[in-house]
Design goal:
Layout (H helix, E strand, L loop, with lengths): L10 E11 L15 E9 L5 E3 L5 H4 L12 H16 L8 E5 L7 H6 L3 E5 L3 H9 L4 E2 L5 H11 L2 E7 L8 H11 E12 L1 H7 L11 E2 L2 H10 L2 E9 L5 E8 L7 H13 L4 H27 L4 E4 L4 H9 L9 E2 L17 E2 L11 E4 L5 H7 L1 H5 L3 E4 L5 E2 L1
Helix pairs in contact: 5-6
Bound molecules: ligand DWN, S-adenosyl-L-homocysteine and zinc ion (ZN).
Amino acid sequence: MLTCRICEGPLREICDFGRHPLSGGFLRPDEIEREFFFRLAIGICGECSMVQLIEEVPRQLMFRNDYPYLSSGSTVMRKHFQQTAEYFLRTELTGPDPFIVELGCNDGVMLRTVAEAGVRHLGVEPSRGVADIARSNGVRVSTDFFQESSAKSFYAENGPADVVYAANTVCHIPYMESIFRGLDALLAPGGVFIFEDPYLGDIVQRTSFDQIYDEHFYFFSATSVRAMARHFGFELVDVERLPVHGGEVRYTVARAGRRPISAAVTTLLAEEEAAGISDTATLTGFVERVHKISTDLVDLLEKLRAEGRTVVGYGATQKSATVTNFCGIGPDLVSFICDATPSKQGRLAPGSHIPVCPPERFADPYPDYALLFAWNHAEEIIAKEQKFREAGGRWIRYVPDVHII
Ligand code: DWN
Ligand code: SAH
Ligand code: ZN
């Protein structure tokens, strides 16, 4: 029997997406032969409602020295994290000598504002390449994985943390028992653990199935996070919905009984109950819509190819690995993908082996259609690439359904 990675309750499989590569595995041509694959499938726990991957990919394969994602690549996200830092500086970090720890600080997009304010901080970032960029931005970083053992040494060296924060990182960590033991060791008695991740409610409602890939192990809801916090002796005390990355929730967790539970928690729990977020019918409906998107997208791309239209991808996102590999989209349907990240350029996208090119290739000449893989950055990218529209180009989106804009 499959069991839940949080509470060991029975896990029921919801959807099998088939064989998938590492979503961050951008390849040189000589690496194709050795490409790693695993079974991408999700299930839901009958006890705690946590939606999770069924197979776990070893962390050292994903979070490597050459981890490709740079958090500062979007103006909207830079602003989001600057505002987040400013919010912490004026709320939780106002004591005599406050201390904040960030898990998965990446290139220092959030902590650089904290560092500039002269506040004690520590970024925990196992991917050395991005950790080095954070250091060059004046951020103090440990390249350990956060877990019970490293958390205990952070405490021994720095004392208690007022805030432990993580964006788009907690959902990447299967070993949650070790994380909560680490939090118990590191957090001040009245400290808080604040984390934000893609929200199951938005994934289901928008059919953003491309949020499901190797690194995203958990798909959180207020219902499952409340149960998880309880299971490890903590309590969910606040939630806030965020518009970034296609819809996220920021959860605040404290030691049980230390903070009042906000009305927002009660409201979101009630909304999830009313929407039947963990019901079989809801999840079956989601899977049916995923199959429809896949068929519609491939039909559209094949029709455009038959008409002799040119189609390229925009944004070599890790999400796009799920779309290309699940739908079976290769260089015959999407000739290349433009992406501003230097380390992805000149490589082949995982599994699909679609070449990744610098954004300058986009206008040289403009294609007839651009498939917007970075749909979560739509506003920013469409504004930046206004000339494409003016030249008669059209964007293709596939979330919440396949449409041309
Ligand atoms: O959870 C995760 C999120 C935070 O980041 C990680 N597991 C991995 C990664 O996921 P992703 O690759 O799906 O994230 P994004 O933010 O959707 O990626 C956007 C991609 O598009 C980047 O490669 C940068 C690129 N881009 C671009 O070329 N021009 C982005 C913008 C805004 C642009 O103007
Ligand atoms: N916080 C950034 C980066 C998210 S990508 C943002 O929101 O844009 C996820 C990051 O988590 C990667 O940089 C990865 O190296 C890091 N990570 C993965 N496992 C971790 C762990 N156990 N402890 C700390 N960081 C981890
Ligand atoms: Zn469970």
